[in-house]
């Protein structure tokens, strides 16, 4: 299997923070870019290195 690509949108929060939100994951960069165009979002396609499930996040990171 090849590299997966995530369509990521950065959201500005009302408290001044920013949060990256994964809209979806695609099987190729071309599919991701096509979805970005179809959905009219100004997100970015990033290669996925791996998946971290919420229960696997170390406590010191999860508090931030």
From TrEMBL:
Superkingdom is Bacteria
- Which InterPro entries does its entry note? DUF1482
Tell me the protein's name. DUF1482 domain-containing protein
């Amino acid at each position: 299997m090849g590299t997966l690509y995530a369509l990521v949108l950065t959201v500005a929060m009302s408290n001044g923070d920013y949060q990256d939100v994964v809209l979806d994951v695609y099987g190729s960069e071309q599919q991701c870019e096509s979805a970005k165009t179809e959905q009219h979002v100004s997100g970015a396609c990033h290669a996925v290195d791996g998946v971290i499930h919420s229960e696997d996040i170390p406590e010191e990171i999860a508090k931030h």
